[in-house]
Design brief:
The chain has 11 helices and 15 strands. By secondary structure, the chain is of the alpha+beta class. Residues 106-128, 190-197, 260-267 and 352-356 have low confidence and may be disordered.
Length: 357
């Protein structure tokens, strides 16, 4: 039986179920709603709240399908590891990476785009896959152009946007041929003079992503979605401190935010929500990463003003029934919570206080 098949009723105020009860209710502890809602919320954070970056479903996990099967070619750079607190949940040893997407030579017909002084042009081909412009390939093209006047001339014409369709096709074939037959760096021809054209690595048009991996579901990497966000140091000093990240963001699954403290919100699940995440024991590298990811100090100041305005526009709250009567719902909740509670990860002290009432 899946715990997601259990329907939980909500009301407009705390304790509404007591006022409306027509039969005897069990205590909060006997009703198991608190443990059940925490377990369900935690599992969703670990599997389906954030957009999936990469990973496969593991036995016992239900992972929501992503819109794309795999991320574009990228370079994944480790930024730090710390404890993360979201609502009542604590996720130890959570890792953060920054995904920088590699530029790709596309196969569309000519559309010149300037990249730092050199203009790359797209090339038409109905059969070949895009060629990834890695630094090694760029070096190989430069080395080949230094000893091949025809290639150097084609690069110059493409850079100036003056190449014909046939010349672009020839250049496309040459680049794909070089990519298919990589040459070790030590074998590059290095003339005493500079090559006529320096074929520079184009910048990727896709912005970098912040990638988060929870220790309990380390087989999946998620993208922390962009939104109106701010970050601030809230405690600590030196190499380890706490960072509070607040973001008004669109999530794939809003239910964990709705049930984060045993409460649900009545608005449409597709609407953006206010998300607060605290990083405990974070490093300077993580602080710098979040600052850059948001856009710097000026953007953060502007976002603070926007978030203050949005606070009053959040959906109205509705509340779970923490006390249940005897019946099917109680039996289902009891079975699921007794089975899952033993494996549930750490929760905050406030959550423990409520669960013991």
């Amino acid at each position: 039986m899946s715990n997601f098949d259990v329907h939980l009723q909500t009301g407009s105020e705390r304790g509404w179920e007591v006022k409306k009860a027509e039969e005897e209710l069990k205590s909060i502890a006997e009703s198991h709603i608190f443990a059940f809602s925490l377990q369900r919320s935690r599992e969703k954070w670990l599997t389906s709240v954030f957009p999936k970056f990469t990973g496969k479903a593991k036995k016992g996990f239900k992972v929501a399908p992503n819109t794309s099967s795999a991320p574009p070619p990228h370079d994944l750079q480790f930024r730090g590891k710390c404890e993360v607190e979201i609502g009542p949940h604590i996720f130890p040893n959570t890792t953060f990476h920054e995904a920088h997407y590699l530029p790709i030579f596309s196969n569309q017909a000519p559309s010149a785009t300037s990249y730092g002084g050199f203009s790359t042009t797209s090339f038409t081909s109905s059969t070949s896959e895009p060629t990834i412009a890695t630094p090694a390939l760029i070096d190989q093209i430069n080395a080949a152009a230094a000893t091949n006047p025809i290639l150097a001339s084609l690069l110059q014409l493409a850079s100036a946007g003056q190449a014909t369709q046939d010349q672009l096709q020839m250049l496309s074939v040459t680049i794909r041929s070089l990519a298919a037959n990589p040459i070790p760096t030590s074998q590059y021809s290095r003339p005493n003079t500079e090559p006529i054209v320096t074929f520079a690595l184009p910048e990727s048009k896709k912005r970098s992503d912040l990638v988060i991996t929870f220790e309990e579901s380390s087989h999946i990497r998620f993208i922390f979605p962009r939104g109106t966000a701010v970050c601030e140091r809230v405690s600590g000093s030196g190499h380890d401190f706490d960072i509070a990240v607040t973001s008004y963001v669109q999530l794939q699954n809003n239910e964990p935010i709705q049930i984060a403290t045993g409460e649900e919100k009545g608005a449409s699940p597709s609407k953006p929500r206010m998300l607060r995440m605290t990083l405990h024991g974070a490093s300077e590298s993580l602080w710098d990463t979040f600052n850059r990811w948001i856009g710097g100090e000026e953007i953060i100041k502007a976002n603070k003003r926007t978030l203050n305005e949005l606070k009053d526009k959040q959906p109205r709250k509705t509340y779970l029934a923490y006390r249940l009567p005897e019946g099917t719902t109680l039996a289902q909740v009891k079975v699921v919570s007794n089975y899952e509670y033993l494996s549930m990860g750490p929760i905050s002290a406030i959550s423990c206080m409520y669960s013991n009432k």
